[in-house]
Amino acid sequence: MVGNTGGYRHLLTAVVKRNLLMYIRYPINSLGRVVMDIGLFVVLFGGGTLLAGQAMDDSIEGIVVGYFLWMLTIQSFQGIAEEIQQEANWGTLERHFMTPFGFPIVMAAKSIAILITTFVFASILLLAMMIITGTWLHLDIITILPIVLLTLSSAFGVGFAASGLTVLYKNIGSWFGLLNFVFLGLIAAPTLNVPGIAFLPLVQGSELLQRAMSNGVRLWEFQLSSLLTLASVGVGYLLIGYLIFHMCQKRARKLGTLGDY
Amino acid sequence: MVNELDDSDPTHAICVDSLSKSFGSGEDRVIAVNDISFRVDSGDIVGLLGPNGAGKTTTIKSMLGIVTPDAGAVEIDGVDVYSNPKAAYKNMEAMMEGARNHYWRLTVRENLEYFASIAGENPAAIRDQHDDLLEIFDLREFENEQVRNLSRGMKQKVAIASTLGRNVNVVFLDEPTLGLDIESSLKLRQSLRDLATERELTVVLSSHDMDVIADICDRVIIMKDGGIIADDRVEALLNTFESSEYRITVQDINASSIKSDGLINGLNDVTEIEDCIQLEITGDIKTFYQVIEELEARDAKLIDIESKSVDLEDVFMKITKGGD
Questions:
Q1: In angstroms, rounded to a whole number, what is the distance separating the alpha carbons of residues B120 and A102?
Q2: B79 to chain A: which residues are within 8 Å by CB?
Q3: pLDDT digits 0-9 by tens, A3-29
Q4: Of B87, B90, B120, which has the smallest distance from its Cβ to A10's Cβ?
Q5: Are strands B170-174 and B92-95 parallel, antiparallel or unpaired?
């Protein structure tokens, strides 16, 4: 049971399976997500080509990578925030608190499940974007995967913080839309121009991912300081986000509002 | 009626000590639970009763550790819920009032497997246990049906089955029969009782339905204004109030004189029915014999004596209204 690896495996298997089943059991919503993401890109790409012409073609690789990372970020952030909001709404959140693993472990399992589905959706999107634009990026998994995971860690951190505020203040979903545009700004932010900007969520990861996917730079070819910055930002925001969530749920338990919606 | 705590008995599955919880501050402060203590023996089924706002749900949520109390301690199977929640949750599960507690887009069996698995159980290893639950709750033929397609009563059964879907010793059920029709409620009560006996479960059950408590529970804790005002075995509570109301029908006596002279102890009401009068008396057996003696002294002819039997609802009403 709990405490042995079998217990953790059963937990992870159950959470991943449930997540996939939910996508299958809400087929219109899942399909709509893919169509919307691709549709928005087509509009942006088509509009940009019409307006900017050659300039658009010159920066198309950067746009594809940026859009890919933006979608990954939004889906990771919203995935974890909406997950907790829905669990509270369905009355199942309290049951996730009352497991012998403790809530952090359950949330870690949920984050992994969200990452898996996010990667599946983002991979479909990336393939569609490359076909639409006729631009083929460098897809070195050994380089891309750690960069994306560390970059998304900060998005999960923001997601945890948002989830904590949701548990405490309930329906604050309208703020999530605003955050999506903040993410876009961070992904597009150039790291060299403003000192310290690399320590904001997503910025460093976006820079490294652009270089890896557009220019074919391998993981070991990056400066160690760049990778350390990426790792510290990812882990740091994840921890801060979880700490905020922990404080919020503690406060909600004191107020007796945990699970209320 | 409130039992003294006995710390010497090691078989307590639940120990609640000096639990207090208030919400708000200043003039808006509401005391939801006020310094309550009780023990639940292993294998006991205890009903938590009380009017709205009595503090039942806050008590249960505090016992589960999902509401942090202002003071007090709760132990489940000897493990402190607040200092060691992970160990405590190994042995407890709960179904909360008014919540779905499960996923409507998953099938019945998927729900049972999911909630057992997130507690670390191997779903394959406890498949037989789930089969039994599906049989007991008449869910076998719906095991592969998504819960959203089931009736309300069935959904309630899924909620309870998923709560009982792993190996625990202590189960909390908040309003398990809420919203069920009478037939479903009766079947569910029987299933719960059988299951608790078979698995030697310790159950804390909250309900507004006195019949549910009377049918399922061994013991009742009655709460009012955040405190415990009665705590006893169901039979003991019923016995305490049994025959405390009498309807005595007599002839050859003047009703107005009985009302005016005030010599009849415990007299609640006097009703004239044709050539008889009916006296409603409340009191213990001693009071009853005093009244009989008084009536005989007045040469009244006794026609009928009826002892009114009480049910848990009567007991509850008497106890909760006693302090008003």
A1: 11
A2: none
A3: 455 689 999 999 999 999 998 999 898
A4: B120
A5: parallel
Three-state SS string over B5-40 comes to CCCCCCCEEEEEEEEEEEECCHHHCEEEEEEEEEEE
Q: What is the ipTM of this complex?
A: 0.86
Residue B11 tokens, joined: 């078989």
Tell me the DSSP string of B76-112: ETTEETTT-HHHHHTTEEEE-TTS--S-TTSBHHHHH
To the question of pTM greater than 0.95 for the whole model, the response is no
Nearest chain A Cα distance for residue B117, angstroms: 5
Is the pLDDT assigned to residue B323 strictly greater than 70?
no
Q: Which residue from A minimizes the CA distance to B30?
A: A255
Task: Count Cβ atoms below 10 Å from residue B182 Cβ, excluding itself.
Answer: 9
Task: Choose from A10, A89, A112, A260 for mutation: most chain B CBs within 10 A.
Answer: A10
Please give the average per-residue pLDDT across B1-28, as a whole number.
76
Does B93 contact A at CB distance below 8 Å? yes
* Site of tokens 């594809």: A64
Provide the pLDDT for residue B324.
Answer: 42
The DSSP output letter for A42 is H
Report the C-alpha gap between A189 and A205 in whole angstroms: 11
Return the exposure string of B135-173: e unless at least 16 CB atoms fall within 10 Å of the residue's CB, then b.
ebbebeebeeebbeebeebbbbbbbbbbbbbbbbbbbbb
From chain A, the residues in CB contact with B146 under 8 A are 25
Q: What is the pLDDT of residue B249?
A: 87
Identity of the residue numbered B279: L
3-state secondary structure of B272: strand
